[in-house]
Specification:
- The complex is a heterodimer of chains A (about 160) and B (about 750).
- Chain A is an alpha+beta fold.
- The N and C termini of chain A lie far apart (about 40 Å).
- Chain B has 3 domains: about 130 residues, Aldehyde oxidase/xanthine dehydrogenase, molybdopterin binding domain (Aldehyde Oxidoreductase, domain 4, 2-Layer Sandwich), CATH 3.30.365.10; about 180 residues, Aldehyde Oxidoreductase, domain 3 (Alpha-Beta Complex); about 325 residues, Aldehyde oxidase/xanthine dehydrogenase, molybdopterin binding domain (Aldehyde Oxidoreductase, domain 4, 2-Layer Sandwich).
- In chain B, strand 26 and strand 27 form a beta hairpin.
- In chain B, helix 5 crosses helix 6 and helix 14 packs across helix 15.
- The radius of gyration of chain B is 26 Å and the shape is globular.
- The chains are: A alpha+beta (about 160), B alpha+beta (about 750).
- Chains A and B meet through helix 2, helix 3, helix 4 and helix 5 of A and helix 1 and helix 16 of B.
Amino acid sequence: MNIALIVNGATRTVEVSPYKRLLDLLRDDLRLTGTKEGCGEGECGACTVLLDGIPVNSCLVVAGQCDGHTVTTVEGLADGPLLHAVQRELVARGGAQCGICTPGIAVCAAALVDSGACRTKDGDARAKVRELLAGNICRCTGYQLIVDAVLAAADQVGGES
Amino acid sequence: MTQFSSDRVGQSVPRVDGVAKVTGTALYLDDLAIAGVRHGVTVRSTCPHAILDGFDRDPEFDWTGITVVTADDVAWGQPGFKQNVIAMLEDDQPALVPVGGRIKHWDEPLALIAAPTRARALAARAHFKPRFTPLPAIFTIDDALRAEVVLYGDDNVFKKFLVRKGHTDDAELERALAGCVRVVEGHYATGAQEQMYIEPQAMLAYHDGAVLHLVGSMQCPYYVHKAMKALTGRRADEIVVRQTVTGGGFGGKEEYPSMLAAHCALLASAAGAPVKMIYERDEDIAATTKRHPGRVHHKLGLAADGSIAVIDIDVIFDGGAYLTLSPVVLSRGVLHAAGPYRCPLVRVRGRAVATNHPPHGAFRGFGAPQTTFAYERQIDKLARALGVEAWDFRDRHALRPGDTTATGQLLVDSVGTDAIVDAIRKVAGSPPEPRGTNRHGAPVRRGRGYAFYFHGAGFTGSGEQRLAGRAAVSAQVDGTFMVHASSTDMGQGAITTFTQLAAGALGVDNDRVRVIDPSTDLVPDSGPTVASRTCMVVGGLVERASAVLRERLVAWGRQHQLDGDLSALARAATADGTDWRETVQYEPPPGIHWDDTTYTGQAYPCYGWAGCLVDLEVDLDTREVTLLRCVHAVDVGKAINPVIVAGQIDGGTVQALGWALLEQITYQDGRVANATMTNCIVPTFADVPDLETIIVECPYRFGPHGAKGVGEIPMDGPAAAVANALTDALGVEFDRLPILPEDIARALEVVA
């Protein structure tokens, strides 16, 4: 069937089975390969994208569910050459190592930061970041520098608003 | 060391591949668009031990466009494919089991299928079934040693080692043990562990004229190159192996990629088209190598004067069905088994045995975590028995300059003991309140545990000399410089570290240096990306090549009366097409002596040293463990890039904490029964505390700027610190890993 969705701000129409995984629609049909597959069963979070602003595992969402909805992938986080604060801080603070989980974490953390859900002035911000990112597995970093990066980004975004 | 050191070294510059990774533009193998590519899948065994009788190919299925390869479809020995073997240390593992041959483990590759789409390949696989006659199988170390079923040689022993210090025969050692005023004896068991890189194994093969290309996710392009030479019989220059951006390795992409490379090469040849293979997660967990399950029997004898008089250790690793890297993993386990403690009499016996488990192989730490767990439990037990504070006890007995290790290696410099002991002491503070309640109102017990350990950096003994790794740096016509090394970046930051070392020695800005993607036609063999050697050994080569190239360019400039910075000189010097490339080869530091037959001498050029403190609490209702603090001080010699080094320590720490408390491989009749990320779990953001990582720098004279290894040592000790903290909290011993809530429940029941 024809599925129309808004991906990273642009309307895209694709002819796919409604049962195709959103992950495959993005990677194979739209060639947006920034979204990664780590497990295919919703455990690792590498395929995280935003569906109407909410983080989802795109390996567990089928194309039919996305008709008429908005999807944001890692390719849609930056404003041209201007990185999202989360991306900037992940680079600056060593929050990315092998990088395969990074798109999913960047997308999820960006949603978190943009929502204002975690700022260091809120006392339990570190715990909150850990809880809200617990669906994204990273095997390289031990998470410490990612948490640092997300909080640094949260403070910047919070400061701007 | 070079005279051109610059302040760029030691700075936490952002990773050079950072922006590509956070924007999703870094291209991993599965992201490459390859025209006409076929998707390869593997037909695997569904039994642990059997004779392969043949295959049933469903005649009803539409086989159009499907390529099938079995070992019997290949004309071995004819041009194209020479030998059905995955060449590693020994040639005991076939690429595919032939009909009539022996299946030795579950999920062993038996046949290959390629199709234009992945869905078609998977559908075809469902219609292609192996037939086999089962054989009795063995899954335990004891059954392997009984050798009623023989899988390797005549006794199932892949390799044995014996280290003796301070005595000549067993009787002398037994007499010394009998003379000890106290002997602590323990039996320790550690489980298999999955590397769980988030990018599964991935490889592509294609032919370009006479040349076979392998492109993929890997740690060691030249290992794959060597395996492809043995498999295909091709000349070295008819095989090109290139690493793509690699989504984690941790040892899991050290030897295993040769298997995928062989399979892709066989399929690409049969299909006459490029073939790529991306493992499914369950397949990757079930079929590929893991950390060796280990069993350690440890006796620690105390002399009347309070010194450690005797250490006697027996180490046995389950190597699985094929030899892979088991002998070298065992070697490292044995060489670290006595720990960083002073002792005049040491015996370490080690064996790696064959079972019908899928082969175990390389994983960060490489044998040392298993034996470290044992000796750090032992030291803790002895300290407790004597009523001495656990960290003070380690301080008292730890190796220092002037002491010798179990192999008789005299420690001279770069011994981090004092710095590590002080670093931990400085931040330790008070231990947690032993009793209390948690936020759910449940009663808790709290405890503190320590571990102290060392890890040899680089290859064992004369390994680096044998490898004779090479690296090159070249000047480019645009005034930039290029580093050529086969060391791969799998996330650990090698290319950024090399950039800093080269830029520092050349005296140019980091952005003037590029590290070329490792491809065997473009880079010399620098040795594999393993053994905590990349910065210390290959980084040293990169720095030396850079320094020599700089000298040559400056001399050339003087000769031609040219001024200007090095970039300008590079532009001028290369303008006529001259290849300005400096290649250097590893040269051992002076005075290295190692005897492979007696296992004595300098086992490693130098050691990293580390200490770990863990505070935790146990919920007495659920038996769940919450980590409260994890302090990890690691002596790395010199942190070329402190953020990258901290990231290595943090990452290794969490893998070790996971091995201690969460990560379990459940084998049922030799099959991995929990081969999904749902039940083969690793730590998440929510499972670990904020890490208190301390970088300690006790420089190694022959490492670049003093750098030594960092990659593996963080994996070695935290599990013992966790077990020691649990004992402190609960008053019961935990001598097996992992320690799951049900293990804690059982231990507490036994005590009650």
